[in-house]
């Protein structure tokens, strides 16, 4: 369950059966929401990306295993790294794809928790405002999607960043796609404000763990590789504010890159449905801890002192484990 931050007395509130959502005006654009931890002080969740294909390309199989792992870990929520609906997002709030790719697929009882969603490039080639609409939340209480926002869980804070507008090629060479840029233009003003807000929020954060989520890769050995725009504009802010994890989708794989020049771990969970077999670039083996060119997802368990990350394939097999304690060196498990 998510609840709003009360750093302002002026807000807009709407209610669904299981969710209170509050939009809080403040000096920064990033809205902040609260998510409680378990009674034992822990937090656990799943991460999946690039999934919305009406159950095809093993989306349903991945969803089944997510349900199994979700029950075992008693997850608190699910994070989607974007590209929620293929090929061209949603056509509107009544698009049957919302049922066929989300409601009817992630049916396990353990997955009936909050879903925090960011937008991917394929989502931007549909009606973006449909995915942002509270109407979808009324249709399914799990759905929560904004362009950029913060979820505060006390010792862990999650910063969701809208990365699609950073990509130059979507503006200069959109190919067969028609992107929905309502709310983005003028683009440079939007990006400038977003970067300032992310920097400010990270700088002000007192959380033990800072985790940033975006759709696009910053570092990846997959098809899309390094995203120059994010490497030049967003990464310096993440490094300056000592974040712990950058989590993304976009490359249809599962991947863990451990940076050799900062503490940041780069985690790709983009295997929610269609994967790109055999599509891997050369990468420093000291950094590349995992590259799996198939479907799957990721879990994360967090306490005040420790983070444990596990990657699973489409059959629920464990591909890779990694953990870190604050004040200690990271260790593969």
From TrEMBL:
Belongs to the metallophosphoesterase superfamily. Purple acid phosphatase family. It is found in: Secreted. Binds 2 iron ions per subunit. It comes from Castanea mollissima (Chinese chestnut). One of its GO terms (cellular component) is extracellular region. Keywords: Glycoprotein, Hydrolase, Iron, Metal-binding, Secreted, Signal, Zinc. It catalyses: a phosphate monoester + H2O = an alcohol + phosphate. Its cofactor is Fe cation. Pfam families: Metallophos (PF00149). GO terms for molecular function: acid phosphatase activity; metal ion binding. Fe cation 2 binds at residues 83, 121, 215, 250. This is Purple acid phosphatase. Fe cation 1 binds at residues 50, 83, 86, 252. Its EC number is 3.1.3.2. Residues 44-253 form the Calcineurin-like phosphoesterase domain. The keyword Hydrolase applies. Its main location: secreted. PANTHER family: PURPLE ACID PHOSPHATASE 3, TARTRATE-RESISTANT ACID PHOSPHATASE TYPE 5. Residues 1-28 form the signal peptide.
């Amino acid at each position: 369950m998510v609840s709003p931050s009360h750093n302002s007395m002026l807000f807009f509130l709407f209610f669904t059966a299981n969710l209170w959502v509050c939009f809080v005006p403040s000096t920064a654009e990033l809205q902040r929401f609260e998510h409680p931890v378990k009674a034992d002080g822990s937090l656990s969740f799943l991460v999946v990306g690039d999934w919305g294909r009406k159950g095809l390309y093993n989306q349903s199989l991945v969803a089944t295993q997510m349900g199994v792992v979700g029950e075992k870990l008693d997850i608190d929520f699910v994070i989607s790294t974007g590209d929620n609906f293929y090929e061209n997002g949603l056509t509107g709030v009544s698009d049957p794809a919302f049922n066929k790719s989300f409601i009817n697929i992630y049916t396990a009882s353990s997955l009936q928790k909050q879903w925090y969603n960011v937008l991917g490039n394929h989502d931007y080639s549909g009606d973006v405002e449909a995915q942002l609409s509270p109407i979808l939340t009324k249709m399914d209480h799990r759905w929560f999607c904004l362009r950029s926002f913060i979820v505060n869980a006390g010792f862990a804070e999650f910063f969701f960043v809208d990365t699609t507008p950073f990509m130059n090629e979507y503006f200069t060479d959109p190919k067969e796609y028609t992107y929905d840029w309502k709310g983005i233009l003028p683009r440079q003003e939007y990006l400038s404000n977003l970067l300032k807000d992310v920097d400010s929020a990270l700088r002000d954060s007192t959380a033990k763990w800072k985790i940033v989520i975006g759709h696009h890769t910053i570092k990846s050995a997959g098809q899309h590789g390094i995203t120059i725009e994010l490497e030049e504009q967003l990464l310096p802010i993440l490094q300056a504010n000592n974040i712990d994890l950058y989590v993304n989708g976009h490359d249809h794989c599962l991947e863990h890159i451990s940076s050799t020049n900062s503490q940041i771990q780069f985690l790709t969970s983009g295997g929610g449905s269609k994967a790109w077999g055999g599509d891997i670039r050369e990468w420093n083996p000291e950094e590349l801890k995992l590259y799996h060119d198939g479907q799957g997802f990721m879990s994360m368990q967090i306490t005040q002192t420790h983070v444990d990350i596990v990657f699973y394939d489409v059959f629920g097999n464990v591909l890779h484990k990694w953990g870190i304690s604050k004040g200690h060196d990271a260790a593969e498990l």
